[in-house]
Amino acid sequence: MSSEFRELLKKIGSGTHTHKNLTRQQASLALEMMLTGKATPAQIGGFMIAHRIKRPTGEELAGMLDAYSRLGNKLSIIDENKEVVVLGIPYDGRTRTAPISPITSLILSLMGVPVLMHGGRRMPTKYGLTLGEIWTNLGLNIQNTSLEQVQTSLAQKNFGFLYLPTHFPLADNFVTYREEIGKRPPIATLELIWHPYKGKNHIMAGYVHPPTEKMIREALTLTGVKKFTLIKGLEGSGDLKLEQTNIIAIDDHESEAGFKYLKLNPLHYGLKGHDYPLHSEQEYFEQLTKTIKGEMTPLTLSSIWNAGFYLWRCSVVETMEMGLSKAEELIMKGDLHNHCHSLSENLNYV
User: Fold this and answer.
1) In angstroms, rounded to a whole number, what is the distance separating the alpha carbons of residues 213 and 249?
2) What architecture does CATH give domain 84-342?
3) Which residue stretches of 256-334 are H helix?
4) What is the pLDDT of residue 24?
5) Domain boundaries of the chain, sorted by first residue
6) What is the C-alpha R_g of the chain?
7) Among 5, 16, 19, 113, which one is least packed by beta carbons within 10 Å?
8) What is the pLDDT of residues 88-123, one digit of tens each?
């Protein structure tokens, strides 16, 4: 048993009226001790539940990011002048709506925007469809790549994926505790904004609850992240919704608050449709493949809507309208299929 960790646990687990928040340094130490096994399983379980009940602060989240930065792999700088877009997607996957982010990432990387994604195997609480499974189905066996291959792919093809079991096993080992407690711990929020890249980052992540967005902004400010886009998207992802107005927080260094909100309604851009349900994974894979090949599918409109926004937000185009037009052109011409095939060849995938 770690006496040092016990003191940290006592601090956050004392009860509603007597608990105290951890400092950034203490939160960093706590997560490091949990990931490296210095804390016992009983202590780890107690901490995860107590921290969930207390609710993490932005400072604590920043400290946890510090621990991830120390213990996890980071890709080297590919270009001093380029921002790498880090897409933060909930690791426990999707169960209700079809993921659009793979198409978005293909379009961004095709247009010269470096994209870095990360994730792991199926995990609680949803055990939903993961990014790793989607890319594998598209021919990119991201589960078996070396860190050097990921680095080369990001530099040459503007796309990289860090797979936890392969590239950050300490974090992957922690999934066992999440399975045993059956609840989402605060580390699930940390994963949305983990940026394993040494250069300039543009964090583009999803969230569900407004308090989470505020906490994320505070953590990013403390850790020196200057460019961020936080989307109240489908199932906590960065996928914009077709059926309602999207609320998005973006950095704004000219304002006193340091950020501002965008409200984007697809109807204002002549787009009217539905967010496609995830009826079955096999059906989704079939529709995804057809969409990438340039066929009109139930995913096409949502793909255009999302890619149009991301192209504009990443300064590839000057207006949303131009982004939507470019996204439609790339999708309908089948350019994504060729790009996906190129990624597979570049990384020696089958």
Assistant:
1) 8
2) 3-Layer(aba) Sandwich (3.40)
3) 281-292, 300-313, 320-332
4) 98
5) 3-54, 84-342
6) 20
7) 16
8) 999 999 999 999 999 999 999 999 999 999 999 999
